[in-house]
Amino acid sequence: MNEHTEELIEEAPKKYTSNTITESNRKRATILAFALVPLSGLATDIYLPSFPNMALSFKVGASSIQYTIICFLLSYGIAQLFVGSIIDSFGRYRINLASLLVFALSSFVIVFTTNIHIVYLMRVVQGITTAFIIVGKRAFFVDVYTGEKRRHYTSMLSIVWATAPILAPFFGGYLQKSFGWQSNFVVLGIYGVVMFLLELVYSGESINIKHPFHPKAIFKVYRTLISSADFTFGIVVLGVCFGTLMIFSMSAPFIVEHLFHLSAVATGYCALLSGTSIFIGGILGKTLKFGSLAKKLILANITQLVLIGLMYVLTPVYTSLPFLMMFVVLINIICGFIYNLFFTYCLTRFPLNAGVASGLTSGGSYLVTSLVTSVLFVFMVIKDPSSLALGYLVFGLLITGLLLFLRKKLAY
Q: What sections of the protein cross the membrane (predicted)?
């Protein structure tokens, strides 16, 4: 990214229609874009407190319900690798509207099914439609803003996204207690319908230049982005970092409700603390200006490893949920810090190919998350604080190796 490429975007001819982003509707469209950014987190986190009850309802084991998350993450990640080139060629707006409707419909299908395999299928559908929605909305900020404003808004994305891990499980815990697990998906369906109507009335097309859908040209763009080591390895760091967050999210319902014998509401409160810590870490990543990017990342990683070591040694001695959550919160703050820095870096790395860059950044990171968490759960059963600390340690050491490789390759 440089001043010349930003000038090209500013000078690009725009074909205005009744559904185009202009000065008159840019503010409202920006608010709606931020309202949709947390959708991926909302779709995974709102029903986390319902995991044990869903297992009972479908008469399956814990791993079968955890697989509904993996289905979403895999389809969401894979789809994002391709939807960037589609929305760069055909635009963001109409595809976004269609995706919101399909997402809402799939949520209502889950509500009424009694077959876990239908749930898996609908979660795949939700992953794909969410990919179109989120990639388009992240690209929106690169389309509409330039310079410092662009950096400001793109750095805000991971912070706004973190509102879902904060609020969704907390809200979901009360939904579970009051109405059962199906109510979570009713809320997702209503959210999709409401956002469709708001987008239809207040938003529009944001893309400045539509790229021809030529496979050779598209392949060249992908090759350019992937061949940039800082971009590609940054995506891997994002994936491992998000995997660190997901370890607790996927294990918390069983640790809290089985090990500590507390309710789904308690799981929601723990998720609230976990999500708040991610939010705090994202704000720190945006606001702290000391040192180079590489220096901040390595210092954060060292702090994370020290916390994980203390967690492994101390939590078996002090076996209480508040003590465990203290370490979870601190480790998640570090993860949120690292994630915000790399997400902003990767997302703004190639502004002329915002859709593809957005898709590769998030899609690639979700694929890495799906891979590392799936492998971890094959070899490790996380059922107590000690095994949770070991899972954290594996991912913390992976991040260490990646940061050591990247420390001299980052552009700033």
A: 29-48, 60-83, 95-112, 118-135, 156-175, 181-203, 224-248, 260-285, 297-315, 321-342, 363-382, 388-406
Q: DSSP letters of 372-406? A: HHHHHHHH----SHHHHHHHHHHHHHHHHHHHHHH
Least confident of 34-48, 248-262, 392-406: 248-262
Residue 117: pLDDT above 50?
A: yes
- Report the C-alpha gap between 202 and 224 in whole angstroms: 35
Distance, in Å, from the CA atom of 213 to the CA atom of 354, rounded to the nearest integer, reads 15
pLDDT at 408 over 80: no
Contacts of 195 (CB under 8 A, 6+ apart): 32, 35, 36, 100
Q: What is the DSSP string of 346-366?
A: HHTS-GGGHHHHHHHHHHHHH
What is the CATH number for 219? 1.20.1250.20
Q: How many CB atoms lie within 10 A of CB 200?
A: 13
Distance set, CA 388 to CA 75, 248, 316, 366 (Å): 26, 7, 11, 20
Q: What domain count does the chain have?
A: 1
Q: Which residue has the higher pLDDT, 260 or 139?
A: 260
Conformational region of residue 78, where left means phi above 0, alpha means psi within -120 to 50, and beta covers everything else? alpha
> For residue 61, what pLDDT is reported?
82
Q: Which domain holds residue 239?
A: 24-406
What distance in Å separates the CA atoms of residue 7 and residue 14, rounded to the nearest whole number? 14
Q: Which of 38-52, 160-174, 208-222, 397-411 has the lowest mean pLDDT?
A: 208-222
Is 8 contained in some domain? no
Residue 326 CB burial class (10 angstroms; 0-12, 13-18, ≥19): middle
Cβ contact 329:245 at 8 Å: no
The pair of three-digit structure tokens given for residue 195, joined into one six-digit string = 């956002």
